[in-house]
Structure formats: structure tokens, C-alpha cells
Amino acid sequence: MIHIDKYFTRPMTLTLELPPELEQYLLQEAKQQGLSVEATTLQLLTNSILLKQKQAKAVDLLQSWIDDGDVEEQQETGQYLLQVLDNDRLSERQLFPLEMKGITW
Fold it and tell me: Do residues 45 and 7 make contact, with C-beta atoms less than 8 angstroms apart?
């Protein structure tokens, strides 16, 4: 887990050559947020890393369910979930049509 205070106790200096499009994006974001380009860049980088960490934790959790679970129970739960999602729709169109199983889901 990243702790923001770490950035301020042991700073690391980076010098980057950015393409003009990315530079413009950072300048625009900084202006919209009322922050310096450096602060905006640090915020975007931190948010990106934190998101990756959350995603990795979610993948690990899902993998632990797969590794530790009963295959038959998982299949039954999956089928039930698909059925409930298809039934609880305003549209008659199914989200998970049987003819698309193995192709799109």
C-alpha cells in the first residue's frame, strides 16, 4: 500500500520529456484543479498506483475464491447470478443469452 506521506519524507526527483499532448493535458488538469503541474502530476500518479493496487487485491480475492471454492457450488452460483441479472431488467433483451455463452461471456 502506498502512503502519501512517503513522498514528502524522501522525495524523488524525476525529469521527464513529455509529448506535447500529455503536457497540454497536465497543464489543463492543473489549471482546473487550481494546483501546480507538479502537484497534479503527483496526484494522478498516486491515484493510478492506488487503483492498480486495489485491482490487484480484487484479483487476488477472486483467485482465492476460485482456488478455495467448490467448483459445483461456483457454477450454481454463477448460473443463479446470470439468471437474476437477466430477469431483473427493464428490457426484454437478455444480458447473457445462452447462444453467446463461451463467445462473449
Answer: no
